[in-house]
Design goal:
By secondary structure, this protein is of the alpha/beta class. Helices cover about 35% and strands about 20% of the residues.
Length: about 500
């Protein structure tokens, strides 16, 4: 897709479709009045009819009339006071998805007042809209059905229309948005692929191809070496499957180098290619979703590749402990005692609390490789989805200054996080007679206890992002299909780029 920023008036731009976002009630004033006039009053008529409503992501399509665009697509941004960076991002996606199944090659989007409603102005609006359109193109149905007819259109050209703006600055911002969107779609495509298609070994192969494409160092640790390194928790989870585990390590920049912020950042993503629960097997209902338990791994692999495109050589690590959690003759059993890479012993009382086990060893290994700051991302607990739903990611962090840095990156990325507390009194619920602690406690406060478990494996500033609610949608929305969302990819990219030289 080619990208172009024009500073002409929207009615002078030739395109198959001209999209016109508006905030609040439809007020036909200024440029919007001229657009409506040249569209032969269609916007006013559709609004009066109730076909076009001032409800966020509500749309109406009209003939272009005397506009140079063939069709006019109006989209509501909802109440102006509620327009955030995330809303602008989703407007871009919703515009693209509204055109699904249509023959559209050239799409123009008028920025209108969006730049005045968010921090960062028109440059931020251009970046987020472009990123949104790219993310809106993603359709998981096409992964295994290439002849799927109702996908969003593959655009030849996206035109952002911003009369009087700095064209060079907006172009640079929009190009950045396209690259971030393509990275999110890479993560989503990997994530949506079926478990019989993506085993730990296959995901490692995909990571090798990505590393070669973007000039990244890669190391894939197989079981024998993992045992030598003392990764007892990681190996315990992967022992039940015929598909052996792989610890995937990607590095950008020179070994031991620090970024411009003085950090050696490591992003660690949970990569359970399929989670049956192991011996503590899950209920059958919705178990097919457990192919999505590799979301964290797919996200960190895509994020380091995106950073390599935007700021090559930025020092950082991405580590993806990748396993299948299956019942079998060699599976870990409830009551097994395993030793973590940092020497601590863990009593596995529930084999379905497996993500924290593989993350713990991966976090230890990140520190062994010199990481001074950690972020882990994982579809870790059903509790976070029950607490926050699919629109807000739960997060823990220590110290507060590091959490605030990660949260600020999320704000720039247009993603939402809710900080949850470490409640130290709950730690005693993880006590074990046989080991240093168990891998899970009683159900009450389980979300906090999962973070307290992970905290045992971090000695440097660390943030934990639990995306079990936000990592994938069960139902399609105006701005996204059902399936993987790509959540937190942009946050991790923003975080890494804050240390780019």
């Amino acid at each position: 897709m080619q990208l172009r920023v024009v500073v002409d008036q929207p009615w002078d731009v030739a395109a198959d479709v001209l999209a016109v976002p508006f905030a609040g009630d439809l007020r036909l004033e200024g440029p919007l009045a001229e657009i409506d006039k040249r569209a032969d009053g269609e916007l006013a008529a559709l609004y009066a009819l109730g076909e076009l409503k001032a409800e966020r992501y509500g749309t109406a399509m009209a003939a272009g009339g005397q506009l140079r665009a063939g069709r006019l697509l109006a989209m509501s941004a909802g109440d102006a006071a509620g327009v955030s960076r995330q809303v602008v991002l989703r407007i871009g996606s919703a515009i693209e998805r509204r055109l699904a199944g249509r023959s559209v090659r050239t799409l123009a989007i008028w920025l209108g007042d969006l730049g005045h409603l968010i921090d960062g102005g028109e440059e931020a609006a251009a970046e987020l809209l472009a990123r949104g359109v790219v993310e809106g193109e993603f359709e998981p149905a096409t992964i295994y059905r290439p002849d799927y007819k109702n996908a969003p259109p593959a655009l030849d050209e996206l035109i952002l229309v911003a009369p009087g703006a700095d064209r060079a600055a907006l172009t640079k911002a929009a190009e950045r948005g396209v690259i971030v969107g393509e990275g999110a779609n890479l993560a989503r495509r990997l994530d949506n692929r079926a478990a019989n298609d993506v085993s730990p070994e296959v995901l490692a192969g995909e990571a090798r191809a990505i590393a070669e494409r973007h000039g990244l160092f890669i190391d894939v640790i197989e079981p024998a070496r993992a045992a030598e390194l003392g990764m007892g928790m990681f190996l315990a989870v992967g022992s039940g499957s015929d598909n052996p585990p792989r610890m995937i390590v990607l590095r950008s920049g020179e070994e031991g180098a620090s970024d411009a912020a003085g950090r050696r950042l490591a992003i660690v993503g949970k990569g359970v290619c399929f989670d049956s629960g192991g011996i503590s097997i899950k209920p059958a209902a919705q178990m097919e979703e457990m192919k999505m338990d590799k979301t964290g791994a797919c996200t960190v692999i895509a994020a380091i590749a995106t950073v390599a495109r935007l700021a090559p050589g930025t020092p950082m690590l991405a580590i993806a402990p990748t396993v299948e959690n299956m019942p079998g003759p060699h599976s870990a059993r409830p009551g097994d005692i395993v030793k973590a890479m940092n020497g601590k012993t863990v009593d596995i009382v529930n084999t379905d609390a497996e993500g924290r086990l593989i993350l713990g060893d991966a976090m230890c290994y990140a520190e062994k490789l010199g990481a001074t700051h950690l972020v882990d991302i994982a579809t870790l607990t059903g509790a976070v989805a029950r607490a926050l739903g699919d629109q807000m990611t739960g997060a823990f962090g220590s110290p507060q200054t590091w959490y605030d840095t990660v949260a600020a990156a999320g704000e720039r990325a247009g993603e939402r996080y809710w900080q949850l507390p470490f409640i130290d009194e709950y730690r005693k619920d993880l006590d074990s007679w046989y080991a240093d602690f168990t891998n899970t406690g009683s159900a009450d406060g389980g979300l906090v206890k999962s973070a307290l478990f992970l905290r045992e494996f971090a000695t440097v500033p660390w943030v934990h992002l639990d995306i079990a609610g936000t990592g994938y949608f069960r139902k399609k929305t105006a701005y996204a299909p059902a399936g993987a969302t790509g959540v937190a990819h942009a946050t991790l990219v923003e975080l890494a780029l804050s240390g780019a030289k």
